[in-house]
Request: fold
Amino acid sequence: MNGSDAGSQVVDRTAATRLLRMAAILARERITPAWDFIMSSLGSTVLLIAQFAFLRGLDPSGDTVRYLALARTAYAFSGGQHLERFLIDGYMSGSLMMDVITPLNPLAFIVARSFAGMLASAAATLPGVLVAALLLGGMPGMSWPGAALYAVSLIFVWLASTGLALISSSIGVALKQGEAAVQLRVFITQLASGALIPVYLYPEWVQRVIRVLPFVHLADTSVAIALGGSVSSMYAQIIWSAALLGIGIVLWRRRLARLDVYGG
Amino acid sequence: MTGVGTSHMECSVEFDHVCIEYESWRYERMRRVTQRIRALEDLNLSFSQGEIVGVKGPNGSGKSSMLRAMCGVHAPVNGNVLVFGKPPSLFDPKFKRRIAYSSSRRTSLLPDLPLIDSFILRRELFAMPRSDWEGRTHSLVERLSLGALTNRPPREFSQGQRARAELAIALLHGPSLILLDETTEALDLQYLPGLLALLDELSADGATVCMISHRPDDLECAHRIVTIDRGRVAADERIRRGIAGS
Reply:
């Protein structure tokens, strides 16, 4: 390694540390005021208990509830709608300009915001999943390799969902239909990821369609990885998350290059 | 205060026959209808290093578009904007380290966290050395009377308190070009002299200041007052001397 390689590694490590510090501050902001956060977490717990109870009634063996506990946990790591709403509102109102004129690469700042949103979303959802799983017998049993691979796959859930959020928000601002883009993305990802309805409960032909779409990698693939303990299931998730993130970054780079800010 | 010493006059900003347009569009019967709105029309203007330029003009005259063009947010459809001798770019970190932009309509503050967290976020964004950050934070908090507010969230601030906090955040990294878009208008007259004295010091250290305001009091420290109307310079008056070399 020559001197400049060492130098660039130091710079990269410093930049990564700074991004993590920023994400920590932004995540703290997402869960403040604390009572707002606690009450919204309580609200999502009630919905999760209802969803678990419904599926427990459909499948008394408990397999579906165990699937759902893993799927909802994975989906929580997608970060919800935080990034999309931030980008759409920021672009439409011009407030995104305040992020863009700082020396940090605007896309790096967007990724830090996405990471913060993921931490906050996970913190809001995981207690509810745990309570629902404990109440309705949905605690999944996993091998150690399965648990480790599942934890790694959550990183790709986050990357894929960041890519999806960049793509849907870019389309939303391009068409000036921000809320429509968010709701359409939520509708599709909830139905086609396995987070709301386990994919194997759909008719065969619907399953075949869903499994070729990228949305399945936000929940169902992680469940398969956890229960199967096989790394081969992760390849498609890695490829899709890289592709979605790549497309999303290209779209937003173009959008930021022609940021329109109206008014005083 | 910035430590940016100035030994000679140089041009900080130059607008050369600049036209800026906004594209506005909507769908009508499934067809995209585009309308172009011209914000700046053949604007010729230059600011020297260390100058404080007050900008005034009616609503919708192009003042804010001019400031945002200096940040690199709006690319001209005609003419050239040069800042520190180069076209401003949103993807050039070195350029963005040298500018500060503050607006009454857009915030850099974290509304729900104590104000000090906004200062910390700024330190990370600008990769400021900790000692430098501590010194500048202490100085700005004192100069802008923010001592009692650092542990309170900006959501609880009055408009004036918020404006002072926005200014402190904007000035924290020691910029060479300070762009204030009606930021001072919410300040009450008690705090205004302190802020104007601060801008005067920054200007003496070599920073160029461009401030938009509708209040004559805010522009008292300006060396020049530029009036913009319908995207053009309607008047350009030098009202006081005192920039090094002038």
In short: Chain B has a mean pLDDT of 90. Strands of chain B lie at 11-28, 31-48, 52-56, 78-83, 99-103, 177-181, 208-212, 224-229, 232-238. The domain at 11-22+37-106+175-238 of chain B is CATH 3.40.50.300 (Rossmann fold). The interface with chain A takes residues 22-23, 26, 59, 63-64, 68, 71-75, 90-91, 93-94, 96-97, 99, 101, 103-108, 110-113, 117, 120-121, 124-127, 153, 181-182, 212 of chain B (CB under 8 Å).
